[in-house]
């Protein structure tokens, strides 16, 4: 019995939090929002802090802390919590009625620098003393312990009114361990509350993140490690396949719904919205930085997404190099158009002083920031305020979790024999 206590305690902690979240989500439909959701939103960092202490002291006596793989954090502002529920009450005060804003999300596997990129887009200056990054990043200790920093979806709003969405890693062993019960089932109800095996639920979580981000962001950064890992390309093709009947966020506002009723017309053609993608291949070595390799990668990307709804290579500048035989004196940045679909980031040295032909990691990270923030990204169908966007995003998250298309895909995966039943 003693050996079985830690997993059971962990499952109990997760289950109690999930049930509390679902009850608060149910209460959210009543006009006056009750205080419990705010209390719940403030609770998630506490178990991680206590579990970290148990691990550090070597006195893990059971509970979720004995096997939790999430790194301790100083607190976060979560749009989607670790119980896979959306929360807006805590975020709403940070948003305004301003309708001149941009939404940028990021998705990718663990350890590729997603949070580092989002901190750069936020405008965080690591050289400022006493300043903590808005999105926590992995330290060497966290990497050695096999933990992840982000759970669910964290949100921040920069001074330039850029809404940034940082997500938990996909294809992450530590996320899978956190959500697995002793019998192999998932502790997180990812699809209509139906019981699923942890490995299948983990697969669906990555798809749901991709569908949601592609539905509510203007730009979605897809981060991969190295030049040859195309698993994120495959994931985004799956997202394109399953993003069905998810409307434009601007058409879910009360004013847009009223306009549609008054006009009594069919807007199904304008309801299809999908964000622009920017593929970031990170942790590259010096031999990966060549104009010919970048050109070949661009060709492969355009061919890979040729039949998808994503805009890939459609806005290349006239006269852009399209042949793999390029001059040896050409530079990587010279081959980029004003709307670059692929961006390369070098491997970051321990002292951040490793200099490539095109600059250091921090220099190229700054180039990425400048380009993304000046990118003429796809806009929503209608003007909407930041607060309207948040309310619409909550509705879209609910649609994604209840999507019949994703549910059918889940059944197909279950019958494939690749996942536990």
UniProtKB/TrEMBL annotation:
<dbReference type="InterPro" id="IPR039177">
    <property type="entry name" value="SMG9"/>
</dbReference>
<protein>
    <submittedName>
        <fullName>Uncharacterized protein</fullName>
    </submittedName>
</protein>
<dbReference type="InterPro" id="IPR027417">
    <property type="entry name" value="P-loop_NTPase"/>
</dbReference>
<feature type="compositionally biased region" description="Low complexity">
    <location>
        <begin position="66"/>
        <end position="75"/>
    </location>
</feature>
<comment type="similarity">
    <text>Belongs to the SMG9 family.</text>
</comment>
<keyword id="KW-0866">Nonsense-mediated mRNA decay</keyword>
<feature type="region of interest" description="Disordered">
    <location>
        <begin position="1"/>
        <end position="80"/>
    </location>
</feature>
<dbReference type="GO" id="GO:0000184">
    <property type="term" value="P:nuclear-transcribed mRNA catabolic process, nonsense-mediated decay"/>
</dbReference>
